[in-house]
Design a protein that fits this description.
single chain, mainly alpha, 3 helices, 84% helix, 0% strand
Length: 116
């Protein structure tokens, strides 16, 4: 019980320190304006780079996920009952990761589309 109280005191102190630092961060802000940055080569190149990368990700993520799922299904068919559960989990993770990659890529494409 004594260790629990000491741990709780440390967590409380850390929380207070973090919240105080965050408050100072919020109160000590200055606005900076960057004029003409949208016409620079760096900004336009970065927009094109992100656009191309997200387009490639939207194409490659389902292809790679499909290949992994095929591989996992083959391995699952050769596994015993205990290992089949692990392969099933890996198949689910591959599907969820593919969906996450495609949604993230599409979201970035939409965000970049607003800047053009």
């Amino acid at each position: 019980m004594k260790k629990m109280n000491k741990w709780l005191q440390r967590c409380t102190a850390a929380g207070k320190s973090i919240s105080a630092a965050f408050a100072v961060f919020l109160l000590n802000t200055q606005t900076a304006y960057a004029s003409g940055i949208s016409e620079s080569k760096l900004a336009k190149g970065t927009e094109k780079l992100i656009g191309d990368a997200t387009t490639w990700l939207m194409v490659l993520a389902p292809v790679v996920a499909g290949l992994l799922i095929i591989y996992f299904c083959i391995r699952r068919s050769a596994a015993d009952e205990m290992d089949q559960k692990k392969w099933n989990n890996r198949i689910v993770v591959a599907i969820v990761s593919c969906i996450g990659a495609v949604i993230g890529s599409a979201t970035l494409n939409i965000i970049i589309g607003y800047y053009q």
